[in-house]
Automatic annotation (TrEMBL):
Name under which the protein is recorded: Carbohydrate sulfotransferase
InterPro entries: Carb_sulfotrans_8-10, Sulfotransferase
Enzyme Commission number(s) from the entry: 2.8.2.-
GO BP annotations listed: carbohydrate biosynthetic process; proteoglycan biosynthetic process; sulfur compound metabolic process
GO cellular component terms, semicolon-separated: Golgi membrane
Leader sequence residues: 1-26
Catalytic EC class: transferase
Gene Ontology MF terms: dermatan 4-sulfotransferase activity
Record carries keyword Acetylation: no
Annotated compartments: Golgi apparatus membrane
Length: 411
């Protein structure tokens, strides 16, 4: 073998070795990535799921119903006994490990800390030391019944479905007001604009709710959300702040959202949602409708809502409250309702020690000349749907109806 052949052989051997090294390095990185993804997927939180509505309606009254619950609540009581005892946020010590990003800290939480996560075993009493006067007696009584009802509901339906969701996602709709130690989970179309105005005043960002514009409320980024804190900050606030959620009859909230987003000019919802809805669900749509997305009909909107292959994703304005605020994973201290918004909100402000002059605003945020979406308005919109569509729409919000003890509509 001459020198040239030796040189060529060595060169080819070197190239082959280099290629093998590059392949092994790429393979190793891929395995690490896959392992990390699998670990992330293991971080689960146990959720609950109800039996099908038709099964649920056949449940009869049980002798074990707590005294604060009435006949409408019996549907939630027929289930297995609550088994979980784990603390949802018991693994927060990982957040103290130095040098880790938030996502790394989350990925290092052991699976055992999450696989048996349920509602905390104690319904903590409201701190009412700052409440003055007897005018809140009736409101307080209703509030205690709501809290007990939701608590009992979540105890009964806690282990029938696994929900793969990170803690950071679960708290992503919660606004923080540190001065008065308030956590507010935003439910759109249930007074959220005025609630954010109140939080801004409580936080010293404004002197009056009337001085805050709609754009400042929704686009000003003046308020922090709970998911912007590290895990220790999230854990501390969840365990020490007063947590509140305000809800609304699901179909009233749905119709209100439709009227707001599709019956008025809107530079986002028309081109993003309207165009996609009209394109898929309107036969022989004209060019203007396809180009602008304006003029979506309520029936078309419902077809989109019920479609398992929606042409565009969900939106917080019509997403179920159970998926916005996770009421069976976060132990809310106060449950307000849009139907009694003013008295509930003002009682809550007393509970957290808000300034006496701060009252929840009565004014409507936008489209003030429009009639408010009431039960009668909802009935008019439901007439546009077939009986099957009405039933499926109710079923879509079935969990919200039960969770917050709303009377089911006649569909």
């Amino acid at each position: 073998m001459n020198v040239r052949q030796v040189f060529v052989s060595l060169l080819m051997f070197g190239v082959a070795g280099l290629l093998l090294f590059m392949y092994l390095q790429a393979w190793t990185e891929e395995q690490n990535t896959v392992s990390g993804e699998k670990l992330q997927q293991q971080i689960t939180i146990q959720d609950f799921m109800l039996p099908p509505p038709e099964t649920q309606r056949r449940v009869t009254q049980s002798s074990h119903i707590p005294p604060v619950l009435g006949r409408q609540e019996v549907a939630i009581m027929d289930s297995q006994q609550w088994q979980g005892k784990a603390d949802l946020f018991g693994a927060v010590a990982v957040s103290l490990v130095p040098g880790l990003s938030d996502h790394q800290k989350i990925s290092k939480l052991p699976f055992s800390q999450f696989k048996e996560v349920y509602l905390p075993p104690v319904l903590h009493p409201l701190n009412k030391t700052l409440v003055t006067g007897d005018q809140w007696k009736d409101v307080d009584s209703i509030q205690e019944k709501r809290r007990s009802f939701l608590y009992e509901f979540c105890k009964k339906y806690n282990s029938m479905k696994k929900l793969r969701t990170h803690l950071v996602h679960i708290v992503s709709r919660i606004y923080v007001e540190d001065r008065h130690k308030v956590l507010y989970c935003e439910v759109p179309k249930a007074g959220c604009s005025n609630w954010k105005r109140v939080l801004m005043v409580l936080n010293g960002l404004a002197t009056s709710v009337r001085n805050i514009s709609h754009d400042d409320v929704h686009y000003g980024k003046h308020l922090r959300k709970l998911d912007s804190y590290d895990l220790k900050g999230i854990y501390t606030r969840l365990n020490t702040y007063t947590k509140t959620i305000f809800v609304r009859d699901p179909l009233e909230r749905l119709v209100s959202a439709f009227r707001d987003k599709f019956e008025h000019p809107n530079s986002y919802y028309h081109p993003v949602f309207g165009k996609a809805i009209i394109k898929k669900y309107r036969h022989n749509a004209n060019k203007e409708a396809l180009e602008t997305g304006s003029g979506v009909k309520f029936k078309e909107f419902i077809q989109y809502l019920l479609d398992s292959h929606r042409p565009v994703g969900m939106d917080i304005h019509w997403e179920q409250v159970s998926k916005l605020c996770y009421p069976c994973l976060i132990n809310y201290d106060f449950i307000g309702k849009f139907e009694t918004l003013e008295e509930d909100a003002n009682y809550f402000l007393q509970l957290v020690g808000a300034p006496a002059e701060l009252k929840f605003p009565r004014f409507k945020d936008r489209h003030s000349s429009d009639e408010r979406t009431s039960a009668e308005v909802v009935r008019q919109y439901l007439k546009e749907l077939s009986k099957e569509e009405r039933q499926l729409t109710y079923d879509f919000y079935y969990l919200d109806y039960l969770m917050f003890n709303y009377t089911s509509p006649v569909v």
